[in-house]
Amino acid sequence: MRELSRLTHYSKGYLSKIETSEKPLTVDVARRCDEVLETGGVLTALARDEPEGRARKTTLATDQPSAVGPPLRQAVTHTLPRHAAAFTGREDELRRLLSAAEDAAASVAIWTIDGMPGVGKSALAVRAAHLLAPAFPDGRLFVELHGHSPGLRPADPTDVLAGLLASTGMAPGDIPSGLGARAARWRDRLAGRKVLLVLDDAADRDQVEPLLPGAAGCMVMITSRRRLVALDGAVPVSLEILPPASAVELFARLAHRGPLTDAESSAVADLVARCGHLPLAIALLAGRLAHHPAWSVADFAAGCTAELGELAVGDRGVAAAFEMSYSALPPERQRLFRCLGLHPGADIDAYAAAALTGRSVQRVRADLEAMYTDHLLDEPVYGRYRPHDLLREYARTLTARDDPAEDRARSVARLLDYYEHTARIAGGLLIRFARNASPDVVAAPAAAPALPDRAAALTWMRAEQANLLACLAHATALGRHRRVVSLTSALAPWLLLDGPWEQAAVLHRAACAVAGDCGDPAAQATALQDLARVCYMLGEYGEARAVEEHALALVRRLGDRFGEATALQILARLDILDGDPASAADALERQLDIVGELGHRPGEASALQDLARVRAMTGEYAEAERLQARALASYRDLGDSLGEATALFELGRLRRMTAQHAAATQLLEHVLHLYRNLGDPLGQANCLQELGRLHHRSGDHHRAAELLERALGWYRDAGDVHGEAEALNSRAALLADTVGPSQALPGHREALTLARRARIRMEEARALEGIARCLAVRGERAGALTVLAEAVSLYRRIGTPEAGRAADLLKELTASR
């Protein structure tokens, strides 16, 4: 059992409970066990015959609702770059790769494509992937690993897996921490699917191995400058330079010339030989001729040959081809090309390029498109450009040689200002909470993309994710401490939404330390509050409280009233979890006073919402509804769609608490639709959990099981301890009413363990009451009385109306003893 636990990344205790039928066998667990035990899918088939197994069955990519609703996050499973229309040659290599689709039916087909820089490895992989697309209907994914990209660190497989899991529709909060757990989850997500994965520019075996699928049906193509001989089961394809005839044909196609005469073919053959028959260099030369239809092929070839000189085939010829293409650019375009060597990230759009150069977006966009036409840049996604690694290194060399250090520093500063400013605008649209502005807000760039709503903000953040983190790493490496703090602050709302939260916590802890070292208490307070929120989401409530109390002391010393209000609200939420509604209400009343004085309506609405939760907790339902209605009206006046959805969710919960089950169900189904449109996975999970409880009450037990299992899966994968404990209790209560107390007890006991460890008092009391009810039904009255007395005591300490219900049961059990 210990070895199975290690291989599947499920705890020994959890697997033991499945073995003894204390826990159901879910499809996820079954697939992992089938994989490591090589049982041919027997366990998975068994799990699919169970209701709870069916509840977790999902498709990798679908636009249609499943039995439990659509994915919490839309899957993005077709990310191949567009293929080159002028692709030439490599017939034998293509034939081998295309035949691999048949091999994938029996086992994972893994192919490596190696060769020198610029030889066309990525072009071959992309061409083959597009041709193979019909054989892999569940997804075609392209991942840049940056194994040899100048100025870029090789991609960490742990981070790559987070992106891959997100691409399959998994909410970022669902993604487990650690390389092993993520790799196991990735293999699980691909089990039974037909997916094609292209891993571009791999550094070595260690980078690639965790990314590989584990079951038949999938194919992987890996490009690398190295021969990955240590990769077990991989079939190698080594690319050499193009044969002379293919090199001439490629030149003619890229130059948009018809069939060449014998004389032209001879001249072009000499030309392409001087640049090593390397596709990258050939493309640069052909691009020049394509812009001059009046030029003859022979004259152009003769002129280029003269410029290239008597160079040996190889690197010197390639460098000369680069120089010729660069020299032919107008001065402003040359400067843009050099500036691309300063960009810390992998790709760039027109807005970032405009910030980098200090020019207008319109002019820069035209220059980027022209350089794409000249084959100096690739455009893997519409509007996003990147140079080949060799050209990136060439640009870095040019800017270091030709641009003064002061100019380079100003260019990078403008770029970082642009990213930080736009991230802050986007974050304001994504935010779930009232938040202080950063003390280091940068000046607005000359131009930035329009972000009219939350969807646009989320799209921009996700498109720029790698660049934003690369800029943060760049600032850290250069010791730009204030930039590290302010940029991390700008990214905080997105990190809280998209995670992974473990990575967010690392970044925020670093920002806290840097701000403290800089002697900047205002920035440190902001960083501490951002860290506290992430710790709250991770269920690290002790650290969250300690961090927030530190922040509260700082903002009070600074006289920062809004910062104080924010700290009070976070501490109030921790008090709610700790079963101390009186302290929570006191903190929220003080927060309301402060935001009222400041005239901060978003902060007021947020505080009203939390105060309503406290009143509901203590059974003051009418007051809770009044406060929540005020919050809803404020959010609607502010045009805050997320706040409105959350207020409606809380009103739905109130309907459920007051036994208005039909009204609650109708409202929460509407809210679930709102959260889906907003792309908020946490809101969706909370709705699923509430709807599961309502369907339990209405007697639709199968639907309740589906919804609760889905919510539990999200909470468990996300590390949301509060949600997990609540969902475990809800599911256990359902099991008690449907299959009996013996099946329900493990869920309540697991919830009790979680709740006690995290000090979530309400769920601790619910778990105790549930355990007592199960024991009573089994005839274990002595044990039931002991546990129920503890539940009643805890309910009374919290001050919740559930105390009366539990006390009545205690009297009943005592009387019948």
Strand fraction band? Answer: under 5%
CATH class of the largest domain: Mainly Alpha
Q: What is the name of the CATH topology of the largest domain?
A: Serine Threonine Protein Phosphatase 5, Tetratricopeptide repeat
The tally of strands reads 7
What structural class do the secondary elements suggest? mainly alpha
Q: Supply the CATH architecture of the largest domain.
A: Alpha Horseshoe
How are the strands of the largest sheet arranged?
2-3-4-1-5
Give the terminus-to-terminus CA distance: 41 Å
The domain tally reads 6
Give the overall form.
Answer: globular
Number of helices: 39
Radius of gyration: 30 Å
Contiguous low-pLDDT stretches (5 residues minimum) are 48-74, 309-315
Helix content: 55-70%
| Largest sheet, strands/sense/barrel | 5 strands, parallel
Mean pLDDT equals: 84
GO molecular function: ADP binding
Pfam families: NB-ARC (PF00931), TPR_12 (PF13424), TPR_7 (PF13176)
Protein name: Tetratricopeptide repeat-containing protein
Domain NB-ARC: 107-256
